[in-house]
Protein backbone atom coordinates (compact mmCIF):
# COMPACT_ATOMS: atom_id res chain seq x y z
CA UNK A 1 0.00 0.00 0.00
CA UNK A 2 1.06 3.59 -0.24
CA UNK A 3 3.74 3.68 2.39
CA UNK A 4 2.64 7.04 3.73
CA UNK A 5 -0.87 5.73 4.31
CA UNK A 6 -0.33 2.99 6.89
CA UNK A 7 -3.66 3.84 8.50
CA UNK A 8 -5.37 2.19 5.58
CA UNK A 9 -4.23 -1.32 6.42
CA UNK A 10 -7.25 -2.91 8.02
CA UNK A 11 -9.29 -6.06 8.12
CA UNK A 12 -12.52 -5.53 6.27
CA UNK A 13 -15.98 -6.45 7.41
CA UNK A 14 -17.73 -9.39 5.68
CA UNK A 15 -20.09 -6.96 3.98
CA UNK A 16 -17.29 -4.91 2.43
CA UNK A 17 -17.19 -4.72 -1.38
CA UNK A 18 -14.77 -6.85 -3.36
CA UNK A 19 -11.31 -5.48 -4.17
CA UNK A 20 -9.93 -5.44 -7.70
CA UNK A 21 -6.44 -4.34 -6.65
CA UNK A 22 -4.99 -7.80 -7.24
CA UNK A 23 -5.99 -7.66 -10.90
CA UNK A 24 -4.17 -6.13 -13.84
CA UNK A 25 -4.70 -5.72 -17.58
CA UNK A 26 -1.97 -6.47 -20.10
CA UNK A 27 -1.58 -3.71 -22.67
CA UNK A 28 0.83 -3.64 -25.61
CA UNK A 29 1.86 -0.01 -25.36
CA UNK A 30 4.33 -0.02 -28.28
CA UNK A 31 6.43 -2.38 -30.38
CA UNK A 32 8.78 -3.27 -27.52
CA UNK A 33 6.79 -2.39 -24.41
CA UNK A 34 4.09 -4.26 -22.56
CA UNK A 35 2.36 -2.74 -19.53
CA UNK A 36 0.67 -4.62 -16.72
CA UNK A 37 -1.85 -1.91 -15.88
CA UNK A 38 -2.97 -2.01 -12.26
CA UNK A 39 -6.51 -1.30 -11.13
CA UNK A 40 -7.27 2.38 -10.62
CA UNK A 41 -5.28 3.65 -7.64
CA UNK A 42 -8.03 5.42 -5.73
CA UNK A 43 -8.26 3.22 -2.64
CA UNK A 44 -5.83 3.50 0.26
CA UNK A 45 -4.27 0.23 -0.91
CA UNK A 46 -2.75 0.54 -4.37
CA UNK A 47 -0.35 -1.17 -6.73
CA UNK A 48 1.66 0.60 -9.39
CA UNK A 49 1.83 -0.21 -13.08
CA UNK A 50 4.56 -2.69 -14.02
CA UNK A 51 6.26 -2.02 -17.36
CA UNK A 52 8.31 -4.47 -19.42
CA UNK A 53 10.66 -3.18 -22.12
CA UNK A 54 11.53 -6.25 -24.17
CA UNK A 55 14.62 -6.59 -26.32
CA UNK A 56 16.10 -9.53 -28.16
CA UNK A 57 18.65 -10.27 -25.42
CA UNK A 58 17.19 -8.82 -22.24
CA UNK A 59 14.06 -7.38 -20.68
CA UNK A 60 13.97 -4.29 -18.48
CA UNK A 61 11.17 -3.98 -15.93
CA UNK A 62 10.08 -0.57 -14.69
CA UNK A 63 8.71 -0.90 -11.13
CA UNK A 64 7.76 -4.20 -9.55
CA UNK A 65 4.67 -3.32 -7.51
CA UNK A 66 4.36 -4.26 -3.87
CA UNK A 67 2.46 -7.54 -3.87
CA UNK A 68 4.55 -10.72 -4.32
CA UNK A 69 1.65 -12.71 -5.79
CA UNK A 70 1.10 -10.13 -8.54
CA UNK A 71 4.80 -9.93 -9.33
CA UNK A 72 4.96 -13.72 -9.65
CA UNK A 73 2.07 -13.63 -12.13
CA UNK A 74 3.85 -10.96 -14.16
CA UNK A 75 7.01 -13.09 -14.23
CA UNK A 76 4.94 -16.06 -15.40
CA UNK A 77 3.29 -13.94 -18.10
CA UNK A 78 6.66 -12.72 -19.37
CA UNK A 79 8.07 -16.23 -19.52
CA UNK A 80 4.96 -17.56 -21.25
CA UNK A 81 5.27 -14.80 -23.84
CA UNK A 82 8.85 -15.85 -24.58
CA UNK A 83 10.37 -12.60 -23.30
CA UNK A 84 14.13 -12.48 -22.84
CA UNK A 85 15.31 -12.79 -19.23
CA UNK A 86 14.82 -9.76 -17.00
CA UNK A 87 18.34 -8.40 -16.58
CA UNK A 88 17.38 -4.93 -15.34
CA UNK A 89 14.79 -3.52 -12.93
CA UNK A 90 14.20 0.22 -12.43
CA UNK A 91 12.47 1.61 -9.34
CA UNK A 92 11.15 5.02 -10.37
CA UNK A 93 10.86 6.22 -6.76
CA UNK A 94 10.80 4.93 -3.19
CA UNK A 95 7.08 4.34 -2.55
CA UNK A 96 6.41 0.73 -1.68
CA UNK A 97 3.78 0.11 -4.35
CA UNK A 98 6.60 0.46 -6.90
CA UNK A 99 9.42 -1.53 -5.31
CA UNK A 100 8.42 -3.91 -2.53
CA UNK A 101 8.16 -6.84 -4.95
CA UNK A 102 11.78 -6.47 -6.11
CA UNK A 103 12.52 -9.75 -4.34
CA UNK A 104 10.28 -11.70 -6.72
CA UNK A 105 12.28 -10.57 -9.76
CA UNK A 106 15.59 -11.18 -8.00
CA UNK A 107 14.50 -14.73 -7.15
CA UNK A 108 13.20 -15.39 -10.67
CA UNK A 109 16.22 -13.83 -12.38
CA UNK A 110 19.37 -14.20 -10.20
CA UNK A 111 21.88 -11.48 -10.97
CA UNK A 112 19.27 -8.92 -12.03
CA UNK A 113 20.48 -5.34 -11.57
CA UNK A 114 18.12 -2.93 -9.79
CA UNK A 115 18.47 0.78 -10.57
CA UNK A 116 17.22 3.75 -8.55
CA UNK A 117 18.16 7.28 -7.56
CA UNK A 118 20.23 7.50 -4.32
CA UNK A 119 17.32 9.25 -2.60
CA UNK A 120 15.11 6.26 -3.40
CA UNK A 121 17.66 3.83 -1.99
CA UNK A 122 18.02 5.88 1.18
CA UNK A 123 14.27 6.19 1.77
CA UNK A 124 13.60 2.55 1.00
CA UNK A 125 16.12 1.52 3.63
CA UNK A 126 14.57 3.95 6.10
CA UNK A 127 10.96 2.86 5.65
CA UNK A 128 11.04 -0.78 4.54
CA UNK A 129 13.79 -2.51 6.47
CA UNK A 130 12.03 -5.32 8.37
CA UNK A 131 8.78 -4.16 6.76
CA UNK A 132 6.65 -7.19 7.65
CA UNK A 133 7.52 -6.99 11.34
CA UNK A 134 6.90 -3.26 11.47
CA UNK A 135 3.49 -3.56 9.85
CA UNK A 136 2.50 -6.40 12.17
CA UNK A 137 3.11 -4.08 15.12
CA UNK A 138 1.31 -1.12 13.58
CA UNK A 139 -1.87 -2.88 12.52
CA UNK A 140 -3.76 -2.94 15.87
CA UNK A 141 -3.58 0.86 16.27
CA UNK A 142 -4.36 1.36 12.62
CA UNK A 143 -7.41 -0.85 12.82
CA UNK A 144 -8.78 1.02 15.81
CA UNK A 145 -8.26 4.39 14.13
CA UNK A 146 -9.92 3.40 10.88
CA UNK A 147 -12.92 1.81 12.54
CA UNK A 148 -13.54 5.01 14.46
CA UNK A 149 -13.29 7.03 11.29
CA UNK A 150 -15.71 4.81 9.41
CA UNK A 151 -18.21 4.82 12.29
CA UNK A 152 -18.07 8.59 12.62
CA UNK A 153 -18.17 9.73 9.01
CA UNK A 154 -21.24 11.41 7.59
CA UNK A 155 -19.76 11.69 4.13
CA UNK A 156 -21.03 9.28 1.53
CA UNK A 157 -17.82 9.64 -0.48
CA UNK A 158 -15.67 8.91 2.55
CA UNK A 159 -17.74 5.89 3.47
CA UNK A 160 -17.39 4.38 -0.01
CA UNK A 161 -13.65 5.09 0.03
CA UNK A 162 -13.14 3.50 3.45
CA UNK A 163 -15.21 0.43 2.67
CA UNK A 164 -13.32 -0.17 -0.59
CA UNK A 165 -10.02 0.39 1.19
CA UNK A 166 -10.89 -2.10 3.91
CA UNK A 167 -11.75 -4.72 1.32
CA UNK A 168 -8.40 -4.23 -0.38
CA UNK A 169 -6.55 -4.26 2.93
CA UNK A 170 -7.94 -7.69 3.70
CA UNK A 171 -6.50 -8.94 0.43
CA UNK A 172 -3.17 -7.25 1.10
CA UNK A 173 -2.46 -8.47 4.62
CA UNK A 174 -1.22 -11.95 3.58
CA UNK A 175 1.10 -10.30 1.04
CA UNK A 176 2.77 -8.20 3.73
CA UNK A 177 3.83 -11.28 5.67
CA UNK A 178 6.04 -12.47 2.81
CA UNK A 179 7.41 -9.07 1.79
CA UNK A 180 11.19 -8.65 2.09
CA UNK A 181 12.96 -5.52 0.93
CA UNK A 182 15.54 -5.98 -1.79
CA UNK A 183 17.29 -2.64 -2.16
CA UNK A 184 18.34 -1.29 -5.54
CA UNK A 185 22.06 -1.87 -6.07
CA UNK A 186 22.68 0.48 -9.02
CA UNK A 187 22.49 4.18 -8.00
CA UNK A 188 21.46 6.47 -10.87
CA UNK A 189 21.94 10.25 -10.93
CA UNK A 190 22.86 10.74 -14.60
CA UNK A 191 21.55 9.13 -17.78
CA UNK A 192 22.17 5.40 -18.05
CA UNK A 193 21.42 3.78 -21.42
CA UNK A 194 20.99 0.01 -21.60
CA UNK A 195 21.13 -2.02 -24.81
CA UNK A 196 18.51 -4.78 -24.57
CA UNK A 197 19.16 -6.11 -28.07
CA UNK A 198 17.41 -4.21 -30.85
CA UNK A 199 16.08 -1.63 -28.43
CA UNK A 200 17.75 0.78 -26.03
CA UNK A 201 16.25 2.14 -22.81
CA UNK A 202 17.57 5.24 -21.05
CA UNK A 203 17.10 5.82 -17.32
CA UNK A 204 16.89 9.55 -16.58
CA UNK A 205 16.55 11.80 -13.55
CA UNK A 206 14.78 14.87 -14.92
CA UNK A 207 14.37 16.55 -11.55
CA UNK A 208 12.22 16.48 -8.43
CA UNK A 209 8.54 15.69 -8.95
CA UNK A 210 6.43 13.38 -6.86
CA UNK A 211 9.66 12.68 -4.90
CA UNK A 212 13.17 14.15 -5.12
CA UNK A 213 14.42 10.85 -6.53
CA UNK A 214 11.99 10.45 -9.43
CA UNK A 215 13.49 8.77 -12.49
CA UNK A 216 11.87 7.93 -15.82
CA UNK A 217 12.64 5.36 -18.49
CA UNK A 218 12.79 6.62 -22.07
CA UNK A 219 12.52 4.19 -25.00
CA UNK A 220 13.50 6.38 -27.92
CA UNK A 221 12.81 3.89 -30.71
CA UNK A 222 9.20 3.65 -29.54
CA UNK A 223 8.95 7.30 -28.42
CA UNK A 224 7.67 5.98 -25.10
CA UNK A 225 8.32 7.17 -21.56
CA UNK A 226 7.45 5.46 -18.28
CA UNK A 227 7.05 8.32 -15.80
CA UNK A 228 6.50 6.64 -12.44
CA UNK A 229 4.32 8.72 -10.12
CA UNK A 230 5.50 12.01 -11.59
CA UNK A 231 2.29 11.46 -13.56
CA UNK A 232 -0.66 9.52 -12.07
CA UNK A 233 -4.16 9.32 -13.55
CA UNK A 234 -6.93 10.13 -12.98
CA UNK A 235 -5.99 11.34 -9.47
CA UNK A 236 -2.48 12.83 -9.08
CA UNK A 237 -0.49 11.92 -5.97
CA UNK A 238 1.35 14.56 -3.94
CA UNK A 239 2.21 12.70 -0.74
CA UNK A 240 5.27 14.44 0.68
CA UNK A 241 5.87 16.18 -2.65
CA UNK A 242 7.62 19.53 -3.11
CA UNK A 243 5.56 21.75 -5.40
CA UNK A 244 8.35 24.22 -6.20
CA UNK A 245 10.44 22.19 -8.72
CA UNK A 246 7.68 19.91 -10.00
CA UNK A 247 6.50 22.12 -12.88
CA UNK A 248 9.99 22.42 -14.36
CA UNK A 249 10.41 18.65 -14.12
CA UNK A 250 7.13 18.09 -15.95
CA UNK A 251 8.30 20.56 -18.60
CA UNK A 252 11.43 18.44 -19.06
CA UNK A 253 9.23 15.36 -19.38
CA UNK A 254 7.08 17.08 -22.00
CA UNK A 255 10.18 18.04 -24.02
CA UNK A 256 10.83 14.35 -24.67
CA UNK A 257 7.82 14.63 -26.99
CA UNK A 258 6.75 11.06 -26.29
CA UNK A 259 4.09 9.46 -28.43
CA UNK A 260 3.21 7.14 -25.54
CA UNK A 261 3.26 7.97 -21.82
CA UNK A 262 2.94 5.22 -19.22
CA UNK A 263 2.02 6.77 -15.85
CA UNK A 264 2.83 5.26 -12.47
CA UNK A 265 -0.87 4.51 -12.06
CA UNK A 266 -3.57 4.75 -14.70
CA UNK A 267 -4.03 3.93 -18.37
CA UNK A 268 -1.43 4.11 -21.11
CA UNK A 269 -1.69 7.52 -22.80
CA UNK A 270 -1.25 8.24 -26.50
CA UNK A 271 -0.96 12.03 -26.30
CA UNK A 272 0.16 14.78 -23.93
CA UNK A 273 -3.20 16.23 -22.93
CA UNK A 274 -3.30 14.77 -19.44
CA UNK A 275 0.33 15.68 -18.82
CA UNK A 276 -0.49 19.28 -19.76
CA UNK A 277 -3.51 19.28 -17.45
CA UNK A 278 -1.47 17.96 -14.50
CA UNK A 279 1.20 20.55 -15.17
CA UNK A 280 -1.42 23.32 -15.18
CA UNK A 281 -2.94 21.98 -11.95
CA UNK A 282 0.38 21.90 -10.10
CA UNK A 283 1.39 25.34 -11.38
CA UNK A 284 -1.95 26.78 -10.27
CA UNK A 285 -1.82 25.15 -6.85
CA UNK A 286 1.78 26.28 -6.33
CA UNK A 287 0.79 29.90 -7.03
CA UNK A 288 -2.27 29.67 -4.82
CA UNK A 289 -0.28 28.19 -1.93
CA UNK A 290 2.21 31.05 -2.10
CA UNK A 291 -0.62 33.59 -2.08
CA UNK A 292 -2.44 31.96 0.83
CA UNK A 293 0.75 31.75 2.87
CA UNK A 294 1.47 35.41 2.16
CA UNK A 295 -1.94 36.26 3.62
CA UNK A 296 -1.24 34.22 6.75
CA UNK A 297 -3.96 31.64 6.02
CA UNK A 298 -3.60 28.53 8.19
CA UNK A 299 -3.27 25.01 6.84
CA UNK A 300 -6.85 23.89 7.45
CA UNK A 301 -8.37 26.94 5.81
CA UNK A 302 -5.94 26.73 2.90
CA UNK A 303 -7.00 23.19 1.97
CA UNK A 304 -10.60 24.39 1.75
CA UNK A 305 -9.74 27.50 -0.26
CA UNK A 306 -7.60 25.94 -2.99
CA UNK A 307 -9.38 26.24 -6.33
CA UNK A 308 -9.00 23.00 -8.30
CA UNK A 309 -12.42 23.18 -9.96
CA UNK A 310 -11.19 22.97 -13.55
CA UNK A 311 -9.21 19.76 -13.01
CA UNK A 312 -11.99 18.27 -10.87
CA UNK A 313 -14.55 18.95 -13.61
CA UNK A 314 -12.44 17.07 -16.15
CA UNK A 315 -11.32 14.05 -14.14
CA UNK A 316 -12.67 13.82 -10.58
CA UNK A 317 -16.12 12.46 -11.28
CA UNK A 318 -16.78 9.51 -8.91
CA UNK A 319 -16.97 9.17 -5.11
CA UNK A 320 -13.67 7.25 -5.07
CA UNK A 321 -11.90 9.85 -7.18
CA UNK A 322 -13.29 12.75 -5.15
CA UNK A 323 -12.14 11.25 -1.88
CA UNK A 324 -8.78 10.14 -3.26
CA UNK A 325 -8.12 13.58 -4.75
CA UNK A 326 -8.48 15.10 -1.29
CA UNK A 327 -6.62 12.27 0.50
CA UNK A 328 -3.72 11.87 -1.94
CA UNK A 329 -3.32 15.32 -3.48
CA UNK A 330 -4.91 18.32 -1.77
CA UNK A 331 -4.37 17.56 1.91
CA UNK A 332 -0.83 16.15 1.69
CA UNK A 333 0.48 18.95 -0.54
CA UNK A 334 -0.94 21.59 1.81
CA UNK A 335 0.43 19.76 4.84
CA UNK A 336 3.90 19.60 3.25
CA UNK A 337 3.87 23.24 2.15
CA UNK A 338 2.92 24.51 5.59
CA UNK A 339 5.40 22.22 7.32
CA UNK A 340 8.16 23.49 5.04
CA UNK A 341 7.19 27.09 5.78
CA UNK A 342 7.24 26.43 9.51
CA UNK A 343 10.64 24.76 9.30
CA UNK A 344 12.05 27.66 7.28
CA UNK A 345 10.86 30.12 9.92
CA UNK A 346 12.73 28.40 12.74
CA UNK A 347 15.91 30.15 13.85
CA UNK A 348 19.09 28.21 13.09
CA UNK A 349 20.40 25.98 15.87
CA UNK A 350 23.15 27.60 17.88
- Taking pLDDT < 50 over at least 5 consecutive residues as the criterion, the unreliable ranges are 3-16
CATH topology of the largest domain: Metallo-beta-lactamase, Chain A
Tell me the CATH architecture of the largest domain. 4-Layer Sandwich
Written as H for each helix and E for each strand, in order along the chain, the element string is: EEEEHEHEHHHEEEEEHEHHHH
Largest sheet report: 7 strands, mixed
Helix content: 40-55%
Descriptive overview:
With about 350 residues, the chain is α/β, with parallel strands linked by helices. The protein has 2 domains: about 5-125 and about 180-270, Ribonuclease Z/Hydroxyacylglutathione hydrolase-like (Metallo-beta-lactamase, Chain A, 4-Layer Sandwich), CATH 3.60.15; about 280-345, no CATH class. It is built from 10 helices and 12 strands. The chain has helices at about 70-80, 100-110, 120-130, 130-150, 155-175, 245-255, 275-295, 300-305, 310-315, 320-345, and strands at about 25-30, 35-40, 50-55, 60, 85-90, 115, 185, 190-195, 200-205, 215-220, 225-230, 260-265. Strands 1-2-3-4-5-6-7 form a 7-stranded mixed β-sheet. Strands 8-9-10-11-12 form a 5-stranded mixed β-sheet, with helices on one face. α4 (about 130-150) packs antiparallel against α5 (about 155-175), α5 packs across α10 (about 320-345) and α6 runs antiparallel to α7. The radius of gyration is 20 Å and the shape is globular. The model is unreliable at about 5-15 (pLDDT under 50).
